[in-house]
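Model: You mentioned two targets. I'll fold them one after the other.
Researcher: Yes, keep them separate.
Model: Target one:
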Amino acid sequence: MAFRTKLDFSSNRQVLQYPETITVLSGATSFGVPFSALTVGPDPDYSGVSLTQLNLISTFSGNTGTTVYTWFDSRMQLGASVLSAWTSTNSGLTQDTGNIFTAETTTIIDNNLVALSYSGVNFDLSVVGMVDLGGGAYSGTVYTAQFDILSADTLDFTGRTIWVDVSGITRTDSLIVNTTGATFLNIGSSPSSGALYYTSGGVLTTNTSDKRLKINIEPIGNALSKVLALNGVYYNWQEDPNGDRRIGFLAQDVGEVIPELVFVNKKSPEQYMGLHYDNLTALLVEAIKEMNSGITITTQTVLQTQTVVAEDNNIELNFNGSHESSIGGGLILKKGIGDDADTQLITNENGDWITNNNFIPQGLVIPLYTPESSKNNNFGLVAYDDDFLYVKTSTGWKNIKLTNLDGIDK
């Protein structure tokens, strides 16, 4: 009887499909696949060498059309069918059987013989001695450098159960799509109970984030600088240039900044790149925390405002920087002097404030001259006491006698 699959309608709307006899539906329609149409043979992905023997000697006899061997190992007979008969014209050649398999263990499914496993051989053969017996007959000795005994799993159909829904929905315990992609003709819009992803092996899974499943856990550093290096773009898909305009990132650009967000679809011949958009959330959270921690380091921040208000008592420049990075730092008022000139208040290598304009204070308080003042080597320093005004010059301190102005109109 030809092999067919049998449908069992006993389970409500579901139909259980068995690898058994033919089922005749209404209208005498047969449901099933002929056994002869199913794949058979050893599985090349699950085969290997189970034993190797080296330097073997066997003997042979025969004529120009047939060679009969007396093998060193009787299992070598499996390869005889692919070998040419030995004659004087080919005795200098080396023959190789390649991988030759035969069913090792079998079973019967629906009156059909099915292999459960395969065994095989692979060996070379060359003539080392040959005697012409006359009348086209020969005998001799052959040498095998390497004899491999093989084993393999099966590709033969061994039975499977498939659920078929009467209304048209197919259910299965394990569905494998071997083409370039699976197509769903209708996608619903119902509320979701969880996101659906796939593992590196292609198995669908939820977006699991359990700490017990993770290793090599490290905090995300410099998150804000990474976010600032990203560039969001508008785009259209090439296959739908007139469709809805999208917003997102370019995977190649993101990979240069945060390669952990990028993946490659290795199952596609084009090796297209994609992004783990959900993982971007962790980066954004850490960037926001950096902005509110007071330790954010940026090269330039532009505030579109007329006034800067700080709740803290201090505005600290060069935070987490070095002395070298502080040189030339300070405050710049754009176009303070004119449209082409800014007002600057910056520092030098000694930490002194230098301006390119004038200070016009309401008053100026001069420090008191003390014995410690003489140790200060900053030329131009001004100090005073009750009688003199002192100025530090390159040749030392100089003073000017102060005149008492009490009683003089000012």
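Model: Target two:
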Amino acid sequence: MKITPVVADELHHKMSIVADEPDLQECYEVTQAHCDKIITWCKARLIPEVVSPKLLLLMAGEMENAADITLDQYRDMPSDDKVQRNRAYYAYRSYCGFVSLMNEQLATSDTYLEPVEAPTEAVKPPRAVVTPEHPIAYPMTHVTWVPADGGRKDAGFKGETGDCGCRAIAIASGRPYAEIYARINELAKSERTGKRKTGVSDARTGVYRVTMNRLLAELGFVWVPLTAIGSGCKVHLHRDELPATGKFVLRLSKHFAAYVDGQLYDTYDCSRGGTRCVYGYWKLEEHP
């Protein structure tokens, strides 16, 4: 598949960084040869039709990080700087398009842990482990995922929903799901709207940052930023890059997740194989 010059240049830049950092290679579970292979594709602006799921995840994750950072930069640009804003918006759309292509390929693969050296040999999904503390958990090389809905089902709620903010807060704080649900909708009533922000938070469909900040502050959480504009992604959803102990609400790209004592609690494994960028987290301050 052909890729745009802006995607090729950005992906080339990111893979060059990974190729020079052994720690990053260990985090992504790739080698310098893997990075060099992607760099070669970038130079040709052509990605092969058959690519290892591990490399698809790596490329999609880095481009999604680039898309989110570019969108933040676009929003911070002066409205009269049309040239730079147009460039930033084009780059953002290009990154999003590339991520969509990668996700389409990932959707047809059996597993994202398939070895790069043997792409035709699938690896079995991680086996569930039952412990007294967690009835079911999935230990993987990058993180242990514990399926959890934050108490939504037990509270009587039904149907599919986009309640990641409510769910993550309920899990990390240990508060009842219904209590967090009601408090989010109560705080949403005082939110302001404008040209960019036309709606307000809803516990069922999504929570804006302003309400996340207010509610988590009420519950004793403190915000810790992990990225800045232009800095790139520094921390990923990987056990080696996040604190081993403590209760956290992670801010990811268009998603929130609970991370408690080194384990990911969510309705699905949202880590993307340990490559998903963590923009920051709210940490529960434990007081004696």
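Researcher: Noted. Anything on target two?
Model: The chain has two domains: 5-107, 138-284.
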